[in-house]
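Problem 3 from the worked examples.
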Amino acid sequence: MERVGIREFRAGAAAAVRRAEAGQRTVITVAGRPAAQLGPLTSAAGERTIDELVAQGLLIAPRRSGAPNDVTVSVWGTPRLDRLLREVRG
């Protein structure tokens, strides 16, 4: 783990972020005392992201990019779900 003073960090912030993206953790010090830590993103409390699952081979990445079927249906009142699905599917 690398230790960097705040002035040095400010001068080379972009490089420090690239190193964090690569997996390196950096401790940022103020007046010689540790004040913050910069490192790679981790998922919250045991949850894994889709990118992590793809990297581990546990999930297959989608073939198409973009948002999935953005179809908006105007709804008046409380129609039945099967009728809405029939309208969306055609």
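Problem 4, a separate protein:
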Amino acid sequence: MIVLMLLATMMACSKKSEKVAITSIEWWSLWEPEIADQMIKDFEAENPTIKVVRTQHGDPGIWEAMVVATATRSGPDLFFNWSGAYQESFYKKGGTVSLNDYSRQYGWGDRLYPAATDQVTFNGNLTLIPYGFNAVGIVYKKSTFEQLGIKEPATYAELSAVCDKFAANGILPFSIGGIDTWHTMGWADAVLEQFCGPVLHDRLNDINDTGVSWNCPEVIAAFTELSKWIARGWVDPNFAGVAEAESHMPIYTGKAAMNVTGDWSEFNIGDAGFDSADFGFFPFPRDGGNGRLVTFVSGIGLCDFNGKERTDAAAKFVDFMLKPATVNKYIPMMGTLSGVKGAPVEDSAAILQQVNKYMAERDAYPPTDGVLPEETVEVYLRLCAEIILGSTSPRDAAQRIADSLESARASAD
């Protein structure tokens, strides 16, 4: 009897001394650290055998890091990215994996909007979970418009008149952060939409459409318009030295009138200590029809650099992100719209409510960096600022983009 008791005690002690195997995964994140860390804490509480290590990145640094990771086959288990050329490139080069099997395993397809997943599906393969489904337009402070008796312009002609009135009264019409080239691209895309019209604009952004060229009168006219902005007083001549994050405060303080940005302004406005109810949002207007919204996806992709066990654990973390309880808790904290069905939009989130309304009633198109090949995107991003600064002529810029796209087509053959 004593021997049996001793054996039982030894077995119990042995079980207590056994260590539970922990799978550690790395997440390259662009989310606010406080939000990401709280989500990790919630996940690890439910999944004690998985440890998530967050590495914080900036924009566009996370792209640059993923380019290196893809080339060296050494990097994270999951990462933040946007829809577009870089995401497609990462997938084609093996930097991120198809999520189809995991989507079937966890039922993700039923939880996501097809309009969002379509933007990150290549050759039938889902490559990014669309946690954010973002829309871009113009954000302005209502009191800045009201003090000059200005209403939201419905056409480009009205917008031009509004800009001249602001400039004449010492208020900068457009605030641009030229250090971050995607921000300058937002303005250039909008002007192209006006001068080319939706049909031609979409054709220009289709690499398979060889029946049109960027070196055309409509594109040159759009670039010519952009080249006049500094002379007309519509933009700060020193915008190329301003970061996108710095471009918001002039709007908040009334020193500038408008900023091209997106639904995430809900978070930025609140984070800066202002009330989003004091701000308005509208699509960039055009003559001859309603202005379309720019939409794109931001979300989470998976890598297989570190073996299947870690990729499986990363997929489990993504599945946790998509659960209703997680979505209901964190999407409001992020102040963004989502590609996840049922994600809440709070009544107090004034910008999100306005954007959501436009998304339901307006057509949309993707940003240029969301559709053209990576090498052409890099040329276009660089030229947008040069056109406004006047260092590259509109005609030369149009030709350089056309040449780059032709080169990309030849490389793809």
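Solution to problem 4. Residues 25 and 52 are 5 Å apart (CA to CA). Confidence is low (pLDDT under 50) at residues 3-7.
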